[in-house]
Amino acid sequence: MSISTISTISTISPANTANTPSALQCQVPQFTAAMTGENNFDLASLRGKKVILYFYPKDNTPGCTTESIAFRDAHSQLLAQNACIFGISRDSLRSHESFKSKLGLPFELISDPDETLCQLFNVIKMKNMYGKQVRGIERSTFVIDEAGQLVKEWRGVKVAEHAQTVLDFVSHNQ
């Protein structure tokens, strides 16, 4: 994984958090990452398109499956809005390939096992799981515009209707 910083922001921080400036309207640092389809994701190669990155905790879990299916079903509408979408989790490429195939996802999944992108977008949080504190990905979605600027972020996403919310945002922000 490679990150080449082209702006002054070091992480994509949550908007409207005390003592944390928003990264909205800031240039997203260029990065490349391994993804399904035997390709590498390269943010720079997507200039001129809207890029949607959705971070999810784990392949083959109920919420992540539901969210991915919803984005799958909205995929053609997103393409019609000059938007491409990529899912990101800490799962391996092998796990991603299986998950993608099982759900018939028409978009690629990015593997971030070393949490480089998770840290860049500040999505690793302490969570309660069965009474224990564990580090995990906070379900989050980011929209990067055609010029490479972060224009929208959703954090702590609830799966129901989220894909439609993202589609509505992309459709109304030409």
Instruction: Give the quaternary arrangement of the chains.
Output: single chain
- Arithmetic mean of pLDDT: 88
Radius of gyration: 15 Å
SSE succession: EEEEHEHEHEEEEH
Characterization of the model:
The protein is an alpha+beta fold and 174 residues long. It has a single domain (2-13, 21-172), classed as Glutaredoxin (3-Layer(aba) Sandwich). The model is unreliable at 2-10 and 14-21 (pLDDT under 50). It has helices spanning 62-80, 93-103, 116-120, 162-172; strands spanning 2-4, 30-35, 39-42, 50-55, 83-89, 109-111, 124-129, 132-137, 140-144, 150-155. Strands 6-5-4-9-10 form a five-stranded mixed beta sheet. A three-stranded antiparallel beta sheet has the order 1-2-3, with no helix packed on it. The protein has four helices and ten strands. The protein is globular, with a radius of gyration of 15 Å. Helix 1 (62-80) links the parallel strand 4 and strand 5.
State the gist of this model:
The chain is α+β, with helices and mostly antiparallel strands and 174 residues long. The chain contains four helices and ten strands.
Topology:
Elements: E1 2-4, E2 30-35, E3 39-42, E4 50-55, H1 62-80, E5 83-89, H2 93-103, E6 109-111, H3 116-120, E7 124-129, E8 132-137, E9 140-144, E10 150-155, H4 162-172
Parallel strand pairs: 4-5, 5-6
Antiparallel strand pairs: 1-2, 2-3, 4-9, 7-8, 9-10
Helix pairs in contact: 1-4
Which structural traits does this protein have?
10 strands, globular, Glutaredoxin, alpha+beta, 174 residues
